[in-house]
Amino acid sequence: MRGRSVVLWLFLALRTVLSGMEVRWCTTSDPEQQKCSDMSKAFQEAGIQPPVVCTQGTSVDHCIQLIAAREADAITLDGGAIYEAGKEHGLKPVVGEVYDQEVGTSYYAVAVVKRGSHVTINTLRGVKSCHTGINRTVGWNVPVGYLVESGRLSVMGCDVLKAVSDYFGGSCVPGAGETSYSESLCRLCRGNAAGEGVCDKSHLERYYDYSGAFRCLAEGAGDVAFVKHSTVLENTDGKTLPSWGQALLSRDFELLCRDGSRADVTEWRRCHLARVPAHAVVIRADADGSLMFRLLNEGQRLFNHESSSFQMFSSKAYGQKDLLFKDSTSELVPIATQTYEAWLGREYLHAMKGLLCDPNRLPHYLRWCVLSTPEIQKCGDMAVAFSRQRLKPEIQCVSAESPQHCMEWIQNGQIDAVTLKGEDIYTAGKKHGLVPAAGEHYAPEDNSNSYFVVAVVKRNSSYAFTLDELRGKRSCHSAFHSPAGWDIPVGALVQRGFIRPKDCDVLTAVSEFFSASCVPVNNAKNYPSPLCELCVGDEQGRNKCVGNSQERYYGYSGAFRCLAENAGDVAFVKHTTVFENTNGHNSEPWAAQLRSEDYELLCPNGARAEVSQFAACNLAQMPSHAVMVRPDTNIFTVYGLLDKAQDLFGDDHNKNGFKMFDSSNYHGQDLLFKDATIRAVPVGEKTTYRDWLGPAYVEALEGMLSQQCSGAAAPAPTPGLSLLLPALLLLLGLPAALLQPAL
């Protein structure tokens, strides 16, 4: 009696969760509907409950909508559809397919090249590419999505096909023959032996599917093939019957790794583009996945055998492939963490993020925030220039009073984008939730888009000290409030607990920490005298400690001169400063005989390093400016627009009527972008303000921000550093004229 009660309870629970007396399985074609009907009949005859009812939709998207609307209950989806179903409709994966015991509920998308080639993941532009088919997971979605998301491939206006056709030097993408870019995307395709079916998404095209894409590479038509991790091993070393592959050896091919290296084809677990999740059954979020698994588990227990009357994991009887489930499925397993993010995994999610761009959702305008009359004029010219070249989205210019107003308006959806510097990026991200969409790149030899703040000392074994032993030393700074000369080093020392300001008095705390300093400033009234003690003024001894070039120790070269002439023990400068003033690079008398090897860097870990090791030994990496947007903005469309635009307008000598990175025609500097910008660059994996700024910079910035004073009232929102310092000065009774233009 008790057993019957349990069975009744389970039945009632399943019926409640799965929308009544039945499970409505959604199908997308007549053959799939027929297989579903046969499965329903087989389950019913075997006494498997609840009954399965087949509901036919017009497409996968339609089925997802039907499930979300409670007009259907379940469907098996691939990774891309799982992403869409989860992100847009709140569906969850509950039962996963298993194909291969070695990799379980996943497989790997890889990029294969011939061993003798010199292609890497970073040099794919212009090479010939082989794909399994248009919109196929490992042959198209993952590699294209990965290239977009990593910033290697820019897409304007969601036109992915055009972007790919421009990026590769010809391709075979079976199924692309009906697109507007078939000349490029089908250039390598050959059809069958009779020349029929060229670029068809079928086996009439010899380069279709996994083996076909690999054949495209093996026969020399292409330089890279995007296939599954098992494809090379299945088609080499005598394992393939067709004549084209009988002599191929797996050792003659290699994989391209995400870090730019290459690896043997057997090392696909560590060297791949993405782990591709298996297909999974999805249901609504309020349904019980464990009950769905019990239903399907009973089915596979009875109908996953060659002798069974119905074959759950075979579609051969219906003249199609992969109906209801993939034919290669060996079993179904329950999914423990039933969220689309957990099932898809980080690598695949990133690839999908780069690929999914709906032109119908693309806004017509990108509203850019501008802060001055000259910037309005330049922005207007940029909007006209972009429009004439039919760049999308079009630019609209919106004037604001301050970067803070820009941040607020972007957060509120009134405008879309603004270019900000480091401390404003911090405020935009922390206070307003904005994210970087593109960055500026300044120096051709500097791939990091920024410079490093370093502490330089003389190489002296008898008087060696570390960063932890700076108390009582003499310090040289380029100027008060200069990023590398003051903000970052002082912030870092505050954050590390070496400098402990009392009552927010940072200036006095610094003057008491060092025995003497030179920190040039605009107005030295009420300025602690130790901060000017090492300064020397001009050749006549006048203008001592002034915040301009009349003070010989002003600026980054001046701070280094302060160290070189033994006035100070440590100089806080840029990583380039030593090289610019040694080994004959500066002909001024004070620098003419200096050698870079006579100087070292102080590292945060207490060690010293050669001046050439600045990337590993620095106080912080100063970030470049970045274009900041709301997190719901498609950052790839923003970068895609800027990348296409800079091809036309990025060179200061271009003849196209507008210069993106030059403000001289508008009687201003650094309008919209810094004039020193060479190119706009993608953010890559630096998708948050903290990622873009870097941990050391954020810590140093927060070291300074932590010194703001708060009375009995609730603390005010955290301002940017440029807003904080005037407040600090007022609290100290010092004039705002102390503020120095950033160096």
Automatic annotation (TrEMBL):
<feature type="disulfide bond">
    <location>
        <begin position="172"/>
        <end position="189"/>
    </location>
</feature>
<feature type="binding site">
    <location>
        <position position="279"/>
    </location>
    <ligand>
        <name>Fe(3+) 1</name>
    </ligand>
</feature>
<feature type="disulfide bond">
    <location>
        <begin position="476"/>
        <end position="562"/>
    </location>
</feature>
<keyword id="KW-0410">Iron transport</keyword>
<dbReference type="InterPro" id="IPR001156">
    <property type="entry name" value="Transferrin-like_dom"/>
</dbReference>
<dbReference type="GO" id="GO:0090091">
    <property type="term" value="P:positive regulation of extracellular matrix disassembly"/>
</dbReference>
<feature type="binding site">
    <location>
        <position position="136"/>
    </location>
    <ligand>
        <name>hydrogencarbonate 1</name>
    </ligand>
</feature>
<feature type="binding site">
    <location>
        <position position="625"/>
    </location>
    <ligand>
        <name>Fe(3+) 1</name>
    </ligand>
</feature>
<dbReference type="GO" id="GO:0055037">
    <property type="term" value="C:recycling endosome"/>
</dbReference>
<comment type="similarity">
    <text>Belongs to the transferrin family.</text>
</comment>
<keyword id="KW-0408">Iron</keyword>
<feature type="disulfide bond">
    <location>
        <begin position="186"/>
        <end position="199"/>
    </location>
</feature>
<feature type="binding site">
    <location>
        <position position="451"/>
    </location>
    <ligand>
        <name>Fe(3+) 1</name>
    </ligand>
</feature>
<comment type="function">
    <text>Involved in iron cellular uptake. Seems to be internalized and then recycled back to the cell membrane. Binds a single atom of iron per subunit. Could also bind zinc.</text>
</comment>
<dbReference type="Pfam" id="PF00405">
    <property type="entry name" value="Transferrin"/>
</dbReference>
<dbReference type="GO" id="GO:0010756">
    <property type="term" value="P:positive regulation of plasminogen activation"/>
</dbReference>
<keyword id="KW-1015">Disulfide bond</keyword>
<dbReference type="InterPro" id="IPR018195">
    <property type="entry name" value="Transferrin_Fe_BS"/>
</dbReference>
<keyword id="KW-0732">Signal</keyword>
<dbReference type="GO" id="GO:1900025">
    <property type="term" value="P:negative regulation of substrate adhesion-dependent cell spreading"/>
</dbReference>
<feature type="binding site">
    <location>
        <position position="132"/>
    </location>
    <ligand>
        <name>hydrogencarbonate 1</name>
    </ligand>
</feature>
<feature type="binding site">
    <location>
        <position position="556"/>
    </location>
    <ligand>
        <name>Fe(3+) 2</name>
    </ligand>
</feature>
<feature type="disulfide bond">
    <location>
        <begin position="518"/>
        <end position="535"/>
    </location>
</feature>
<keyword id="KW-0336">GPI-anchor</keyword>
<feature type="binding site">
    <location>
        <position position="78"/>
    </location>
    <ligand>
        <name>Fe(3+) 1</name>
    </ligand>
</feature>
<feature type="disulfide bond">
    <location>
        <begin position="532"/>
        <end position="545"/>
    </location>
</feature>
<feature type="binding site">
    <location>
        <position position="485"/>
    </location>
    <ligand>
        <name>hydrogencarbonate 1</name>
    </ligand>
</feature>
<keyword id="KW-0813">Transport</keyword>
<keyword id="KW-0449">Lipoprotein</keyword>
<feature type="disulfide bond">
    <location>
        <begin position="369"/>
        <end position="406"/>
    </location>
</feature>
<feature type="binding site">
    <location>
        <position position="139"/>
    </location>
    <ligand>
        <name>hydrogencarbonate 1</name>
    </ligand>
</feature>
<dbReference type="GO" id="GO:0098552">
    <property type="term" value="C:side of membrane"/>
</dbReference>
<keyword id="KW-1003">Cell membrane</keyword>
<feature type="disulfide bond">
    <location>
        <begin position="504"/>
        <end position="709"/>
    </location>
</feature>
<keyword id="KW-0677">Repeat</keyword>
<feature type="binding site">
    <location>
        <position position="210"/>
    </location>
    <ligand>
        <name>Fe(3+) 1</name>
    </ligand>
</feature>
<keyword id="KW-0325">Glycoprotein</keyword>
<feature type="disulfide bond">
    <location>
        <begin position="257"/>
        <end position="271"/>
    </location>
</feature>
<dbReference type="GO" id="GO:0005506">
    <property type="term" value="F:iron ion binding"/>
</dbReference>
<feature type="binding site">
    <location>
        <position position="484"/>
    </location>
    <ligand>
        <name>hydrogencarbonate 2</name>
    </ligand>
</feature>
<keyword id="KW-0472">Membrane</keyword>
<feature type="signal peptide">
    <location>
        <begin position="1"/>
        <end position="19"/>
    </location>
</feature>
